[in-house]
Amino acid sequence: MSTSASLRSGAEAQQAFRDVMAAVASPVAVVIALDGGRPHGTTVSAFASLSLTPPMVLVSLDERSCLLAVVRRSGRFGVNVLGAHQADPASVFARSGPDKFDGIEWSPSGELPRLPGAAAWIAAEVDDCVDAGDHTVLLAHVTAAEPGEGSLRPLTYHRRSFGTRTPLAQ
């Protein structure tokens, strides 16, 4: 057996897995849905394109997330793919609590909340919810997709901090 940590169970295995995943750069998005007229949102880094035909995305939400309950009821959500300049909103929406929208500007877009200045916007309708450990993976059909204005660089999460990728010199 090698000297690397084997993933069995327990706190040590969980920490080893967290440390490994910290080395993987992920896109950062704020997923938002409406409950009545009130927006609910959370920062996610487990977001990806799933299919081109038909256009689909997947988003992973914590089972304890208030947003997950809202999305299950409404069947819809918006994905605000954050730009490099949006580390502050990413931090606000990453915390727990009902007051995440205090002081946060947003506007409706296709009856879903949209944050200004995002690098991209996606509206989606849930096709399936898959239980996956302590998260639920939402498989959703894209109903609208728009790039942000200008040449916005994406915000990423890497080594437990928000940042962005710098293009390599050619």
TrEMBL record:
Its EC number is 1.-.-.-. One of its GO terms (molecular function) is oxidoreductase activity. Signal peptide: none annotated. It is an enzyme of class 1 (oxidoreductase). Residues 21-164 form the Flavin reductase like domain. SMART domains: Flavin_Reduct. Keywords: Oxidoreductase. It holds the Pfam family Flavin_Reduct. The keyword Oxidoreductase applies. The keyword Aminoacyl-tRNA synthetase does not apply. Belongs to the non-flavoprotein flavin reductase family. This is Flavin reductase family protein. The lineage of its organism: Bacteria, Bacillati, Actinomycetota, Actinomycetes, Kitasatosporales.
